[in-house]
Amino acid sequence: MKLIFALLGTALASPQALGIGACCIEYFDGPGCFETDAKDCALQGGEYYGDGSSCEADAPDCVLAYGACCYESVECFETDEFDCFSLGGEFFGPNSTCDDVPECAIVFGACCYDGSDCFETDQDDCSWSGGEFIGANTTCSQDAPWCVEYYGSCCFGQYCEYPVSESNCEGDGGVFWFDPCELLDDVEKCVASFGACCLGGEECLLDVPPNECNSMGGDYFGDNSMDCGDNCPELGACCIGFDCVLLSSWECQLSGGENWEPGACFPGICGAPKCPADLNEDGVVNFTDLAFVLSGWNLNADGDTNGDGVTDFDDLQLILSFWGEC
Question: Is 290 within the bounds of a domain?
Fold first, then answer.
């Protein structure tokens, strides 16, 4: 008896007994199927497939089909046919996947820019960057080695610099090697040079390569030199006109300076102009100098006649007191 009631309950609860079936409705973006009763389906303007019917079994054409969609030949994604067409893509059929259309994918490869800079990207990005696309699935190292900027040692006789790009080395007349300078122990290749470097002020550095000494503004005393001897002079204050510059005594003489003395520069060491109010140094204090003061008033030191770093009333007084020929 229990079995009979169970079977009866199952039959009464079935979609057919309940009057439920597949209902297909055409929406603005394509067909759609759901299961309901005939009355509800009719109220929504759908097509009823009968009691006990299902969307998958009886209305497969009413179910949105998903598949591969190729957009602009470079991007693939899976969606329904209507959505693919609305985006301007190409639909490859129901149940298709992007694996079925490998030609629709962003292809990366080597991109050579300016003949010396290589990076890997897609063709569109390469073109946008102004580069040359070498080809799909290419790499810089294997397919465009001529477009890779290499760095290593550059030898000029027995003088070595590192790191230097290959193009710069050859452009300067050097010989390029991938190894660092310290590994080039073969004299026929290149030997890194070191020596004493004078930076002035009696400061002498040892074991300095000539290029580094020159970059610091020093004097290089030759390969394998161990000291600067008496050739690393003391720096001092050198007056060139009313300007003070730190130079050695002989550099001061060569520069036309005078009154050299050891030590640092300080205000007034080189004296003051005969006519401090003559800002344009034309020998006359007039409206031109006054204009400097007015234009720089509280803004800058263009009209600073007394050297306090500010253009103000004190400078105006100095202009008036020196008015006329100096």
Answer: yes
Give domain status of residue 84, yes or no. Answer: yes
In a domain, 277, yes or no: no
Count of domains in the chain?
6
- Residue 265 CA to residue 242 CA, distance in Å, equals 11
For residue 253, give its domain range: 233-272
The whole-angstrom separation of Cα 131 and Cα 56 is 52
Same domain, 47 and 79: no
How much is the pTM?
0.28
Tens digit of pLDDT for each residue in 145-168?
Answer: 878 777 888 887 667 788 888 878
Tokens of residue 196, six digits: 């004493």
Token duo for residue 131: 């580069």
Q: How far apart are the first and last CA of the chain?
A: 134
The conformation of residue 286, written as its DSSP 8-state character, comes to S
To the nearest 10°, report the CA torsion of 223, 227, 228, 229: -130
Q: Is residue 122 part of a domain?
A: yes
d(CA 170, CA 190): 15
